[in-house]
């Protein structure tokens, strides 16, 4: 078969977190959901480029942080997600 | 004089290590950025902690696994099923995905 290389435990954890976010996004309104999905996927992809793949300590920290954010997002009181870029703030 | 020879031995060692690391990095991942931080004025720093190979995850892999997750999530929604994480790892072809969906749809209590 020669299928894909099996993922490591940590890679699985990251993907499972990603899945959790996409699942949590389903419970929000269609417009917010789209926004959540775009922010979440951009963040995961951004960190995948930014973070050294051997920097397990930092990845673990990001995982913990992500799970906390996911818990907040899961709450029905949370309606949407927003992000702001500091680079854009500099310009008036 | 003794100091100089000690220096060269140390340097040799760190070079060896660097080539070994490079080899490993090339084997398993694309090498993204190699920073060799030795101080400008001094002889190359011998502390191995100054040598750092930075490599991010392979972009193809990231793209691929993220897309798989997204596709599986889409299928789940479409068919009203829940695919376990373990089984979604094993999907390699459309046929396998179809078989899995069929199995899960039948299992679903109506």
TrEMBL record, chain A:
Complex 1 LYR protein domain sequence ranges: 12-72
Organism of derivation: Dillenia turbinata
Keyword Ribosomal protein: no
CDD domains (alphabetical): Complex1_LYR_SDHAF1_LYRM8 (cd20268)
Main location group: mitochondrion
Source organism superkingdom: Eukaryota
Protein name: Complex 1 LYR protein domain
GO CC terms, sorted: mitochondrial matrix
PANTHER family, sorted: LYR MOTIF-CONTAINING PROTEIN 2 (PTHR13675), SUCCINATE DEHYDROGENASE ASSEMBLY FACTOR 1, MITOCHONDRIAL (PTHR13675:SF1)
Automatic annotation (TrEMBL), chain B:
Lineage: superkingdom: Eukaryota
One function term, GO molecular function aspect: acyl carrier activity
Protein source organism: Dillenia turbinata
Region (Disordered): 1-25
Comp. bias intervals (Polar residues): 1-22
Entry-linked Gene3D superfamilies: ACP-like
Coiled-coil parts of chain: none
Name under which the protein is recorded: Acyl carrier protein
